[in-house]
Specification:
The structure is a homodimer. By secondary structure, chain A is an alpha/beta fold. The first copy, chain A, contains ten helices and 13 strands. Chain A has two domains: 104 residues, Nucleotidyltransferase, domain 5; 171 residues, Nucleotidyltransferase, domain 5, CATH 3.30.420.40. At the A-B interface, helix 8 of A face helix 8 of B.
């Protein structure tokens, strides 16, 4: 069984032909150019799909369904992007628009964070009855899979795990509240924390790292900490605590069989996961029953394509 | 169809005969006397059930199942209380023990907070596809019902909504962490907050209230605030914010169709619910899709009996 998954982002449209196990047979991407008319964006999505099919000698008739993952508030049931700031879309009937280009083909619509979560679940979830995926990126995204299905609440807007308070009245968050987990545990937050630490530690090797690498990134503090820089280690320790504390919250709520952490920073591997596991072991409310398995996600940018292809 | 629900608490054993709609035909309670041998407690549970049946002229054969709600960490699947501090129970095969007193009868075991949530869902949930119940009491308890079933995670220990951070490194919580929602939004916390406010406001009418009522309670600040006491109003405003902020978190995660707030303090009605709704309206991440209905629970102590009787 073959599917097409499309990951529509503010910068790129990525698409791939995906088999039922989550293998990508072929993928490519084109620029979104989000400022242009939506019809043109949908045309390019359709052209990309057709090109991938042609290059693999696959007929559209052999495609079970086309899944589309989109940012913003997505009304999966009605096939509408209710609002997507970085795509300039509001009440956009994107499923119908894409369906017009593929008459008779089933088109599925999903929020991009949920699609990515489903991709990780499909490939790395091992059929877990309950599964949570956390992405640490520009924001903190989440996705929850219960009994093989995305949990999204009655209105489809749930699983916003990053938008839960970590510090009441704390740092401002993009959502309009203060103190959300996202405002402490995103890579955006880590960069802010790194810059603040550099300001108060003029001798830190982080300054040299930035000279060599052009700018502060989510890797600055981790790289320098690994080389023994104390100020960098303090940044990492604090950041890990922010991440881990939110993960304890998530586990106390969902007690998922498996929880995977994704986003570029999950490449830090055990350097990130080890302390998180230790923190969770210490503070998890559950002391008497089996424990959630915590691991790193593996699909990175492919998760959205695979999840869009395979989710319901 | 008739059921028996038992709510086993540290102080009392309450039980009732419940019909399939959640009506209690007859109920009563006896002291738990938690320090005595478990066999004696189970004997008293069984006697209480038999007495209720006799008083209503109902045969045990007409009872579909007996449900038992217990505090602590409950392994529903295996019918075991893994750990219950206030019952001095550890790895107690309570389902088997109660089953021995009612041969052939189906016995169900549930965590007490989950049982109460299921009771509120059964009676007040209106068949919502997603439903959350929050109790503000000694602690902050939670229960989540998805597609008509309690959500408890893979190990049965989930839905500990009160044990999620509101203030990182904040007030100590009974669970061993600091800054949990429970440490700010429970009635225990409200009493602590009220006492602190009284210490710094010697002229507050709260002092007179306490003289008249014997001790500080969850009602002290609410009653005095309603009569125009400013220090009391500040306590209520802060407390409502603590409660409401955690409810925003819960909604951002679950986006339940209905969320009910229970515990004695929910008797404050709109005085509590109005400001909570306002806060949620302002800070809910979901701006474009239908909104969660927020209301007060109605069953109070009966919720546990009804939920134990009717949950799976």
């Amino acid at each position: 069984m073959l599917y097409i998954g499309i990951d529509l982002g503010g910068t790129n449209i990525a698409a791939g032909i995906v088999d039922e196990k989550g293998n990508i047979l072929k993928k490519d991407s084109v620029p979104t150019l989000a400022e242009r008319p939506i019809e043109e964006i949908v045309n390019d999505m359709a052209s990309l799909c057709r090109r991938l099919l042609a290059e693999e000698n696959i007929s559209i008739d052999d495609i079970e369904a086309i899944g589309l993952g989109c940012p913003g508030t997505v009304d999966s049931q009605n096939g509408i992007i209710a609002y997507a700031n970085n795509l300039k879309m509001k009440n956009t009937p994107i499923r119908e628009m894409l369906g017009d280009r593929f008459p008779g083909k089933r088109i599925k619509l999903e929020n991009d964070a949920n699609a990515a979560a489903f991709g990780e679940y499909a490939v790395n979830g091992g059929g877990a009855g309950s599964f949570v995926f956390i992405t640490l990126g520009t924001g903190v995204g989440g996705g929850v899979i219960i009994d093989g299905k995305l949990y999204k609440g009655f209105n489809g807007a749930g699983a916003e795990l990053g938008h839960t308070t970590l510090v009441l009245d704390g740092e401002p968050c993009s959502c309009g509240r203060n103190g959300c987990w996202e405002a402490y545990a995103s890579v955006t937050a880590l960069i802010r924390q790194t810059k603040a630490a550099m300001d108060s530690a003029p001798d830190s090797s982080m300054h040299r790292w930035v000279e060599e690498n052009g700018k502060v990134s989510g890797r600055t503090a981790f790289d320098c900490a690994r080389n023994g820089d104390k100020a960098a280690q303090a940044v990492v320790d604090n950041y890990v605590k922010y991440v881990a504390d939110g993960i304890v919250d998530t586990i106390n709520i969902f007690q998922p069989e498996t929880l995977l952490i994704g986003g570029g920073i999950s490449k830090e591997g055990e350097y990130l996961l080890g302390p998180i596991r230790e923190y969770v072991e210490k503070y998890d409310y559950n002391k008497y029953m089996p424990k959630t398995k915590i691991g790193a996600a593996t699909l990175f940018n492919d998760a959205g394509i695979i999840g869009a292809a395979l989710s319901e």
